[in-house]
Amino acid sequence: MKVAVVILNWNGRKLLSEYLGSVVEHTPAGLADVIVADNGSTDDSVQYLRESFPQVELIEFSENYGFAEGYNRAIAQIAPRYKYCVLLNSDVEVKDDWLTPLWQFMESHPEAGACQPTIRSLVEPDKFEYAGAAGGFLDRHGYPYCRGRIFDNVETDRGQYDTPMQVFWASGAALMVDIEVYLKCGGLDKEFFAHMEEIDLCWRIQLAGRQVWAVPQAHVYHLGGGSLPASNPRKTYLNFRNNLLMLHKNLPDSCRRGLLFRRRLLDTVAWVKFVVSGDRENASAVLRAHRDFRTMRRAYTSHPKANLLNVDTNIIFDYFIRNRRTYSSLKN
Asked: Cα–Cα distance between 89 and 174 in angstroms, integer?
């Protein structure tokens, strides 16, 4: 069965005009179909798609369901026709045959439930891109980092991570999933709306006994910040809230409360930093994230018995105290 490359769009007419053409051109027609799922756009995205890309299948939603539920609805609709789906951001440019290596890897590794290509920066193509780089991990406190990116330090891609590797999470910017696995795991959590929902999904894929991989034989170029810039208080709110929700959902009783207590202390430090710097909006976003987490966590009453976060890495200590700024240096 063919692969579905699904791009979720919301008022992204400009992004579609800049990047969709590359996806159509460089996605092998015999292997995959390109599909755009429109999340209730109010700009002229739909009209533009119909006029400029009549060969691209269009799924229309009546409202903005967010990244998570938008993809859930799109994948549920196309599931009978495809074995795999690539969740591809609308601000991603592709070159050459970017898709075949991902498909070949999934076909030859039945233990894999999801994978990602290497993600490079569209603005600085010799560098990795913040959102995923060459595959993601979580440290002992649940902080995400990548091969190629720790906090804001993004490495130049010199081929140092050109080996396929099992990772903890794959980026939602270009995420290939086995559709059957995706649906069995419940898809993306719609309560997250956006941000970190792919890490939560990858966690559940692993709890279900499947693996997540980075496949550097494929690469794409991501603009990043196409929907919300990194400093946007809305993004701060979603990242802080969803990280707490993800930990609450996926950790067992034996360690969940203690880890969440430590994380909330660390988040308080981040709040203080925003206050001291005069960034009231982001400081307020952190407080709202914690407030809403306390309410939203009540909906998650079932927790796994396995602790997949049983790792030694303390990325804050390594980065700020030991001055380990690259993934490779963490092992030194």
From this structure: 7
Residue from 88, 102, 72, 76 nearest 35 by CA:
88
Cα distance between residue 244 and residue 225, in whole Å: 22
Q: How many CB atoms lie within 10 A of CB 159?
A: 7
For residues 169 and 202, the answer to whether their CB atoms sit within 8 Å is yes
| Beta-carbon count within 10 A of 223 CB | 19
Beta bridge partners of 93: 221
> Tell me: the pLDDT tens digits for 284-327?
999 999 999 999 999 999 999 999 999 999 999 999 999 999 99
Lookup result for tokens 């330090």: 153
CB atoms within 10 A of CB 225: 14
**Cβ contact 174:89 at 8 Å:** yes
CB atoms within 10 A of CB 271: 19
Token pair in block for residue 215: 């496949």
How much of the chain exceeds pLDDT 70, in percent?
A: 98
Q: How far is CA 287 from CA 122, 233, 239, 240, 246, in A?
A: 33, 11, 12, 9, 17
Model confidence over 212-229: pLDDT tens digits?
Answer: 999 999 999 999 864 556
CA distance 241 to 243: 6
CA neighbor of 142 nearest in space, from 267, 319, 327: 267
| Exposure of 187 in the CB half-sphere (CA atoms within 13 A) | 20
**Which residue is it, tokens 């027609």?**
29
Listed residue (67, 72, 173, 156) closest to 115, CA to CA: 173
Residue carrying the six token digits 């609805």 = 73
Structure tokens at 267: 């988040």
Structure tokens, 15: 């992004």
Strand-by-strand arrangement of the 153-154 sheet: 136-138, 144-146, 149-150, 153-154
pLDDT at 223: 95
Report helix, strand or coil for 116: strand
